[in-house]
Amino acid sequence: MISENKNVFTLDTKNTTYAFMVLPTGHLEHLYYGKRINIGGCAEALSRKQTMAVGNTVSYSGDNPAFSLEAARLEMSSYGKGDIREPFIELIHADGGFSSDFLYDGYEIRKGRDELATLPCSYGSEDEVEQLKIILKDKNYRLTLEMYYYVYKDCDVICRSCRLINESEADVNIRRIMSMLMDIDGTGYVFTTFNGAWAREMDRHDTVVTAGKHVNSSYTGTSSSRANPFVMISKQDTTQEQGECIGLNLIYSGNHYEAVETGMCDMTRIVAGINPQSFSYMLEPGCGFEAPEAVMTYSGYGFNRMSHNMHSFVRKHIVRGKWQYKERPVLLNSWEAAYFDISERKLYELAKAGKNVGVELFVMDDGWFGNRNDDTCSLGDWYVNKKKLPDGLKGLCDKINRLGMSFGIWVEPEMVNVNSELYRKHPDWAMDIPGCAHSEGRNQRVLDLCNPDVAEYIIESMTRVFSSANIAYVKWDMNRIFSDYYSRYLQEQGRQQGEVAHRYVATLGKIMRTLVERFPDILFEGCAAGGNRFDLGILCYFPQIWASDNTDAVSRTYIQEGLSYGYPMSVVSAHVSACPNHQTLRVTPLSTRFNVAAFGICGYECNLVDMKKEELNEIKAQISIYKKWRHTMQFGTFIRQRTGNIHQWTVADADGRR
Length: 658
Ligand code: DGJ
Hints:
Elements (H helix, E strand, L loop, with lengths): L1 E4 L2 E5 L3 E7 L5 E8 L7 H4 L42 E4 L9 E10 L17 E10 L4 E10 L4 E10 L5 E14 L3 E7 L7 E7 L3 E5 L13 E4 L10 E7 L4 E7 L4 E8 L6 E3 L4 E3 L2 E7 L2 H16 L13 E3 L1 H4 L5 H14 L3 E4 L27 H11 L3 E6 L3 E2 L4 H5 L19 E2 L5 H15 L4 E6 L11 H5 L7 H19 L4 E4 L9 H4 L4 E3 L6 H12 L7 E6 L12 H8 L3 E5 L7 H23 L1 E7 L2 E7 L6
Parallel strand pairs: 21-22, 21-30, 22-23, 23-26, 26-27, 27-28, 28-29, 29-30
Antiparallel strand pairs: 1-2, 2-3, 3-4, 5-10, 6-7, 7-8, 8-9, 9-19, 9-20, 10-17, 10-18, 11-12, 11-14, 13-16, 14-15, 15-20, 16-17, 24-25, 31-32
Helix pairs in contact: 7-9, 11-12
The protein binds (2R,3S,4R,5S)-2-(hydroxymethyl)piperidine-3,4,5-triol.
(2R,3S,4R,5S)-2-(hydroxymethyl)piperidine-3,4,5-triol binds next to loops.
């Protein structure tokens, strides 16, 4: 429930309370985030007292000589009036100045919530979510900053976002705009981040921030395998079952930034939002800019409770559509079985072997289009390779359907190889800097999604592919990070290149939304060289994501456990693969590989055709067990316990009976 009393705003969920108040200067002071309490008349007591601007700090104004923004515990901070910590917003005004001063101007509370116009966001009915809008106006320039709070009481989750509106006659340059900022008392918090690389995603790292600041961010153009946007801030004695912890995530698939910074007055500042690195967005008069939504949850009962809040929030208020609560089919993917060396005969034999052990969905991975025999060519040419599939997608799909299995395919629509028909026709559609040598990744370039013709091409070519056969599943891949950020289209439009990264993800969302609305029955799986884009932005469109290209069961225990802190197992795709493992060469028993994959959306990715009879029997038994238990495994409550290198996972139905 959201309430306002004498300029004190209280946001209550089932078990938590979040509160802030308007100070006499018009700034917002953060008061409290923790277990549920009755703020009632104690707001004054929670407020920090300032009797003088100490030492070389700056007084906010002559009218308020004792008040220094640097010593205040804030809910929002702009650069330039004495607060030199991480700002919420940084603008360059038409006069060249960097200072802003946003002050309180009013509020609105309503049941339900508005969608963001340009970015993916959470959703809920009027019974599930309440919205608070705080309006701030800049004291000197005609700018409005709307700060939004969305309270999901049942999940103990509060989301925040903001919108900057330019009501002046002049352009304003946005250099930084965060989604949330919160100052909390004390220092020495543990900032937990999930870092890694390709095939090593979501490795938990704990940093105690006693001084200075620690930043978790990505500049890959995606949320990245280097630093996932999900982070935690906890006390040093917090464990899985006990202690205080805040979980924080961003509904954004692009360059993100989360920082934990200590201040001079025994306080810690937390910010999260778009990565300001190379970000520069020109906001014209009459226009608005939306920041992505940040998701926050507080637990007084350790990391497991925090995860459970996040899990139910993601399931109920992020994942949409037909597949939201639907049990996911057991699939067999062709990648590690055949790589690029596919043909209709080979795939059909593999599918038949899958059918015999109980597989429900057969997925043809990379290699089916253009002249795609390796990763050097054909991305962009979304027509069937007739040498490999003489009867087209439909021919193979019908055959698989006749076996009693559904059929799915792999695509990588955001990319182009220089060696492709598409590049030869539209070299200007690739993101590269004219006249400069380009730095390739996996022999490919990122398409310039800022260009509406490119977005249209992706939508139309994918529509053609998805409607050319009875396609039940699509794996949407993205295999390189951004390097030479540049849009010729934006250049022609007279816009700044600092907008490219953000406009890219915003358009990507629109493309995905159009396609999932056109094909509501297709089960989409996000993928980006494994888990390079595992985030809530993607999950607003696609109900599941491939966690990692590393299918080794031992590596996967770390990757899946890392993911489990912020994401429910119903969105984590996990496959049983061959042995020795193709990425690590490790040898593990087939039972171990299944035991680990079964905690997620279990599938298979190995050459069943060449497997021994005993192994196939074992797989058949595994699939039959998984089908009996999959509702619990995918949608149950996941509990972590861990001692040293022993991982212990428990999953239970909501009613605790299974
Ligand atoms: C990277 C993905 O993560 C793999 O699973 C596979 O689909 C390859 N791309 C195909 O090129």
